[in-house]
From TrEMBL, chain B:
Membrane topology: Single-pass membrane protein
InterPro entries (alphabetical): Band_7, Band_7/SPFH_dom_sf, HflC
Pfam families attached to this UniProt entry: Band_7 (PF01145)
Domain Band as annotated: residue spans: 24-193
Name the UniProt record assigns to this protein: Protease modulator HflC
Membrane spanning stretches: 12-29
Keyword tags: Hydrolase, Membrane, Protease, Transmembrane, Transmembrane helix
UniProt subcellular location: Membrane
Gene Ontology biological process terms in this record: proteolysis
GO molecular function: peptidase activity
Species assigned in the record: Qipengyuania aurantiaca
Homology family: Belongs to the band 7/mec-2 family. HflC subfamily.
Length: 376, 277
């Protein structure tokens, strides 16, 4: 095969110019001082760390029978390999090259943008337009670059992150609370998101941190534990963050802030638990008292009711009822006790008290001795 | 191929040279960057600066004469290290803040700071000291709360004044950290603990108090019920209650005769027993 590859990058005989030199390593884009630059790289990106464009040469090198060369040139891939001949005696080679270039251009000029996505188009570096979802076309690669980004998709960041370091936040009453929360956001304006702020993700995190501390510093400790207080903090943080990010023109929409947990710091959690226990204790004491109250009142009502009923009867026939009650009671009492009747006139009664005691001790009941005075 | 070279040697060489010239003199300014053209050490023009004439895109320069200095156009952040700030009521607080700035005057920036990193290096100590002054004028409570707004406004304005010398504009300053240093932290924990212990004691005491009140109210109410009922006829109540009391006292529940009663024949119960007198 004769002639130089017009697209060559100089100094690399990949088009098989016949001297069978050992293949060189991958040509980086920062291949300065080595003849003309690779035109498929954006000019001016002098550094070797820029994004490498699709290097046609490399693609070509790894294709077909010319394939990646091995030492010793296995198979038909020797240095003197020739392209199959077209009818008319011309080489297929230029056709192949043109085809590959065309494919590459096509690939970089047709974009299928998903339903949640948008893309920003830079024409020679200059932002020109934003593409919505669908099948879109642009000028091919070196002229227009297209950057596709998920804009609808919700990104969630958890703060504090995965480092197990507990972050305590100071409240307005100079107490500390152990908070973790989630911030959900997505992209409001892709062009702003891309071209206004250096590191949007980090910006969101820092804005969240600052907003949360400011919001909690205006609340009392107990408010951070209550559901209502939490909701207020979440709302407050969301608004503050949105304000901050809008002032940076970051193109970010804060969808929501959710406090995952708000706990007292670990060192003092026992004291907080004891408050809960104390509340339960107090409730228990109150409940017991309520129980006692119910009992006492029920008893009083019962007794009063009983008395009322008897009294009603008594009022109908006072004398008889009184007598009846007296005798009934005496019957009940005296039938169950030892009775001694003393005819008092001229007799000195002997009271066998020791014996009574003894008997009482055997039965271990209360011993009672009553000397009734002479009645009436 | 050979023929192509033979026939078009000069045009190919010319095209090659043109390509090289293009490489050397054309450059692309992306949307994210602004550019200062330095010609023999002197800045001669800017591209894609805020309020500038020329936007991003493809631009030309004189090869070898013009140097292209690229500068970030987007918002940059300036972080500081944790600082211990003393409030005017002598309390310590660990503070950290960030500032967000952008380069608005790249020519001045290139002349005075050289790079964005240079701007950062220049501004960081200023941010530190301005924040310290501003917060140190406030009480600890004010450091924490509502006054933050005005404090940060002042810090931002101060820092912005300084930053303009380096061609930068400070958009915002935010405090990202306000923590207690170790010793005050421990005493804060102790205080929180004792606060809660006090609260627990109070709650328990209140529970006891409430229980006493509930009991007493019940007793009073019971007494009222009794009085209302029994007060209708005090002497009958006396009799009625006495009967109940005898039942309770003398009627041994377990059936064994535990009490001995000695009755005088004059006892009213025996009145009929002795026959009519």
């Amino acid at each position: 095969m004769a002639g130089k590859n017009p697209w060559g990058t100089g100094g690399d005989g990949s088009s098989g110019s016949g001297d069978g030199d050992a293949p060189k390593g991958d040509k980086g884009s920062g291949d300065k001082g080595n003849g003309p630059r690779n035109p498929w790289l954006p000019p001016g990106s002098g550094g070797g760390d820029g994004r490498r464009g699709p290097n046609i040469e490399d693609i070509f090198k790894n294709r077909g029978p010319e394939g990646p060369r091995r030492k010793g040139g296995g198979g038909g891939g020797g240095p003197n390999f020739r392209f199959p001949q077209r009818p008319g005696g011309k080489s297929w080679f230029p056709v192949a090259v043109v085809g590959i270039i065309a494919l590459g251009l096509l690939a970089t000029s047709v974009h299928l943008i998903g339903p949640q996505q948008q893309a920003v188009v830079k024409t020679l570096g200059n932002y020109t337009r934003t593409l919505d979802s669908g099948l879109k076309f642009s000028a091919p690669f070196p002229i227009e670059t297209v950057d596709v980004e998920d804009v609808q998709g919700v990104r969630a960041v958890r703060i504090p992150g995965n480092n197990n370091q507990v972050k305590l936040i100071l409240t307005g009453d100079q107490n500390l609370v152990d908070l973790s929360y989630i911030v959900r956001w997505n992209i409001k304006d892709l062009a702003d998101y891309k071209f206004r702020v250096v590191d949007p993700v980090e910006t969101v995190n820092e804005a969240a941190e600052a907003a949360m501390r400011a919001a909690v510093a205006e609340k009392q400790l107990d408010e951070t534990f209550s559901g209502q207080g939490r909701a207020a903090i979440e709302q407050d943080v969301r608004e503050r963050m949105q304000r901050t990010l809008d002032s940076y023109q970051a193109g970010i929409r804060v969808l929501g802030v959710e406090i995952e947990k708000a706990d007292p710091p670990g060192q003092v959690v026992d004291a907080f638990r004891d408050v809960q226990v104390a509340e339960q204790n107090a409730d228990a004491a109150r409940n017991q008292a309520q129980g006692y109250a119910q009992q006492v009142l029920a008893q009083a009502q019962g007794e009063a009711e009983a008395f009322d009923k008897v009294y009603e009867q008594y009022r109908l026939a006072p004398e008889v009822t009184r007598q009846r009650l007296y005798y009934e009671t005496m019957e009940r009492v005296l039938s169950k006790t030892d009775k001694t009747i003393v005819e008092a006139t001229g007799v000195t009664p002997y009271l066998p008290l020791p014996e009574i005691r003894r008997r009482a001790q055997q039965t271990e009941g209360p011993a009672t001795t009553v000397t009734a005075p002479g009645g009436q | 191929m050979q023929r192509l070279w033979e026939d078009h040697r000069y045009s190919i060489i010319a095209a090659g040279l043109a390509l090289v010239a293009l490489m050397l003199s054309a450059y692309v300014v992306p949307e994210e960057e602004q550019v200062v053209i330095v010609r023999t050490g002197e800045p001669v023009g800017t591209i894609n600066t805020p309020n500038g004439q020329m936007g991003a895109g493809l631009h030309w320069r004189w090869p070898f004469v013009d140097k292209v200095v690229r500068i970030e156009k987007r918002l940059l952040d300036l972080e500081m290290n944790d600082e211990e700030v003393l409030s005017n009521d002598q309390q310590r607080l660990l503070v950290n803040a960030y500032a967000r700035f952008r380069i608005t005057n790249p020519v001045r920036m290139v002349e005075r700071a050289g790079s964005t990193e240079g701007v950062r290096t220049a501004l960081e100590p200023i941010l530190n000291s301005v924040l310290r002054q501003e917060l140190g004028r406030r009480t600890f409570q004010a450091m924490l709360t509502a006054e933050r707004g005005s404090a940060l406004q002042n810090v931002r304005a101060n820092l912005d004044r300084q930053a303009r010398q380096y061609g930068a504009e400070v958009v915002d300053v935010q405090i990202t950290r306000t923590d207690l240093p170790e010793a005050p932290l421990q005493s804060a924990f102790t205080r929180m603990e004792s606060d809660r212990q006090r609260e627990a004691r109070t709650i328990r005491a209140q529970g006891g108090r409430d229980a006493r009140i509930i009991r007493a109210e019940a007793d009073a109410e019971a007494a009222r019920i009794y009085a209302e009922s029994f007060g209708k006829d005090a002497s009958f109540y006396d009799f009625y209650r006495a009967m109940q009391s005898y039942d309770a006292t003398f009627a041994a529940e377990n059936g064994d005769a535990a009490s001995s009663i000695i009755l005088s024949p004059d006892n009213e119960y025996l009145q009929q027993f002795r026959g009519r007198r």
